Amino acid sequence: MSMDVTFLGSGSAYPSPQRGASALVLRIDGESFLFDCGEGTQTQLMKSPLRASKISKVFISHLHGDHLFGLPGLLCTISMNLSPLPDRSPPLIDIFGPCGLRRFLRVSLQLSGSQLIFPYAVHELVPSDDQCPEEGRIDPELTREGGILLPQERPGRTLHPDPNTECFTLVDDKLILVKAFKLFHRIPSFGFSLEEKERPGRLNTELLKELGVKPGPFYGRLKNRESLTLDDGRVLTPSEVLDPPVKGRKVCVFGDCCRPVGKAYKHACEGADLLVHEATLEDGQQEKAVEHGHSTPSMAAAIAKDCGVKMLVLSHFSQRYKPEGLRREEEDEDDVTEMKRQAEGILQGSGTEVVLAQDFLTLTVNLEKRVMQ
Ligand SMILES: [Zn+2]
Ligand SMILES: [Zn+2]
Asked: Comparing C-alpha atoms, which of 154, 74, 86, 158 is closest to residue 120?
């Protein structure tokens, strides 16, 4: 099963021709999950090999425009390009994000007279007061449940963190587990971790054939870790013919922040294959970065080190840092490659690789716990 991450926007504040506003797509097993949807995400999608119609879940880290303003437009375009089947309703899109997102979408779609032809549900994460300075707390009047459900809107869940782990559970199905954790930013922000469930090891079919076990239901039972009694009375245990279970891959995406809140991030991100963290400004500007609720490469690297991740991807760069290759020595003073070196300085000897995000970069996450570019 393939898994990859494509950056559609690696810039902060606003979309520019060099860096789109925040958005990335994680593809797993034919499904696409969108993390953040800044303005212009739909045109970035069109320029990429990805298909907007494959998006089945959307995760919004926080309600700042550079992570959100693209969402109503993208949903409308997906709807316009759908050709509905007369006997089947299109699949539902699940949208996760902080309280207020449900109302934002409802009002945007309603006031613009937009009608989606697919069902969607907005599941809201309830933030706490320690996720932002006092002035960043969202007026409850703005997040209050307003109006009636739109024709295609289905009731969404209101999500609270687990009292033990402090993590929010967003998705928990047969294949994956998606959690969220709290971050500190100018307004409440969240990070997400997506983890594949452990899967059974490979069945040694050559050995089974030698033992005279024919393919069929027996194979399924062994995979489900049941023992079998063969025709000659011999008992075959799963461990004799099954490789050890394969640990799933884990990808984490942090929203804007200058620090996590509590320890939930560690619980969610420990040992991740790939961790995407913002680095809006370079190390020399740490004071300014923190003042605006943002991080520097060294701050991001400290989180990656803490969680023991295999690869740290820096993203959400101030628009002054042009992508490598587009920087013109004579005009652009700010060098993004310096930011990579700053993160590497912290991670020296840890084995964690540092990568700079740029628009349309795709990273493949391999099952063998190796990440290849
Ligand atoms: Zn941002
Ligand atoms: Zn922000």
From this structure: 154
Residue 299 backbone dihedrals phi, psi, to 5 degrees = -65, -40
Over residues 353-363, the pLDDT tens digits come to 999 999 999 99
- In this predicted structure, what is the pLDDT of residue 91? 93
Average pLDDT, the chain: 93
**Is residue 373 scored above 60 in pLDDT?**
no
* Ligand with smallest separation from the Cα of 278: 1
Report the separation in Å between the CA atom of 370 and the middle of ligand 1, taken as the mean of its atom positions. 29
Of 4, 29, 36, 66, which residue is the catalytic one?
66
**How many angstroms separate the alpha carbon of residue 230 from the centre of ligand 2?**
62
Report pLDDT for 146: 65
Torsion of CA 37, 252, 343, 351, to 10 degrees: -150
Instruction: Tell me, in angstroms, the distance from the centre of ligand 2 to residue 316's CA.
Output: 10
Strand stretches in 79-175, DSSP E:
93-98, 120-125, 153-154, 158-159, 168-172
**Each residue's pLDDT tens digit, 212-260:** 888 888 888 888 888 888 888 888 888 888 888 888 999 999 999 999 9
Instruction: Examine the residue annotation and report whether 66 is marked as an active-site residue of this protein.
Output: yes
- List CB-based neighbours of ion ligand 1 within 5 Å: 12, 66, 256
Distance 239 CA to ligand 2 centre (A): 50
HEC profile for 149-186? CCCCEECCCEECCCCCCCCEEEEECCCEEEEEEEEECC
Compute, in angstroms, the gap from residue 315 CA to the centroid of ligand 2: 13
b (16+ CB within 10 A) / e for 304-320? bbebebbbbbbbbbbbe
Ligand nearest to the CA of 63: 2
Amino acid at 120: Y
Architecture of domain 3-81+90-198+246-372: 4-Layer Sandwich (3.60)
| Domain boundaries, given as residue ranges, for the chain | 3-81+90-198+246-372, 205-241
